[in-house]
Specification:
This protein is of the alpha/beta class. It contains 9 helices and 12 strands. The model has no long low-confidence stretch (mean pLDDT 93).
Length: 247
């Protein structure tokens, strides 16, 4: 069944009268991994950040499970069980001054608090479940996040969203700057989430990675969707023709 539908999304640029994204529409099913591709500057990150409410849109509608919803800021998206793993984990994925327990629980304050007061016992138990499930390599959940490798930092960011019980998850360059072993672990997590019914949108600059992981694809060029392909029909040549707008 359809988990998410985005209709006629436009995102303004800093140049008056010009948009980064123009009239983009796509849908996503539960348990599906949708790949968003395109060249640098095509508007991939801007599209999902606007849907998530992290940046301002000019216009556009969002439907979750067939019902229209208003998402004007990230807290709106989180309330609708959406999560966003950002392109730059250092800038907006985790808080460097916090330990793993604090970082993992960042998006779940309502679930682990009562009347505005944090239940530390509940927080510790819930974060430890995610810490163990994602096999985060660290001495304990009290370890500072900056002491971890890039791959394990990315697991912590993923754990933050999994603890909040996301139904729709946006992944922007989820394997950037991590080693091969950690990449395989991230892929396994993504596949397992899809099996459980989580609807996933994935952006990657590595075309072979995108083609290997995703079930369906949309390709952006100059702020517009120039191609839509299923796994069965897509080829690297078709993909690049759409990305360079020569289809």
């Amino acid at each position: 069944e359809e988990a998410l539908r985005v209709e006629n999304f436009s995102v303004p640029s800093s140049i008056p009268g010009k948009n980064i994204i123009d009239e983009a529409s796509f849908s996503l099913k539960h348990g599906e991994i949708l790949g968003i591709g395109g060249l640098v500057g095509a508007g991939r990150s801007e599209l999902i950040n606007a849907v998530f409410g992290a940046i301002k849109k000019e216009k556009g509608e969002v439907f979750i499970d067939g019902k229209p919803v208003k998402i004007n800021k990230p807290t709106d998206a989180i309330a609708h069980k959406m999560g966003l793993l950002t392109e730059d984990r250092r800038a907006s994925g985790y808080v460097g001054t916090m330990n793993l327990r604090e970082n993992i629980s960042l998006a779940s304050f309502k679930e682990i608090s009562k009347r505005g007061f944090l239940n530390k016992i509940k927080e510790k138990k819930a974060t430890k479940v995610q810490f163990d499930a994602l096999n985060v390599r660290a001495p304990s959940i009290e370890t500072n996040v900056l002491n971890l490798s890039g791959g394990n930092q990315q697991k912590v960011v993923l754990a933050k969203w999994l603890m909040s019980d996301v139904h729709i998850l946006f992944l922007d360059e989820p394997t950037r700057s991590i080693d091969v072993g950690a990449k395989v672990e991230i892929y396994d997590i993504i596949f397992e989430l899809a099996k459980k019914g989580v609807a996933i949108v994935m952006i990657s600059s590595e075309l072979p990675e995108l083609l290997a992981v995703c079930d369906r694809f949309i390709v952006l060029a100059q702020g517009r969707i120039r191609g839509k392909f299923s796994r069965e029909e897509v080829t690297e040549e078709l993909f690049m023709k759409a990305a360079t707008n020569i289809l």
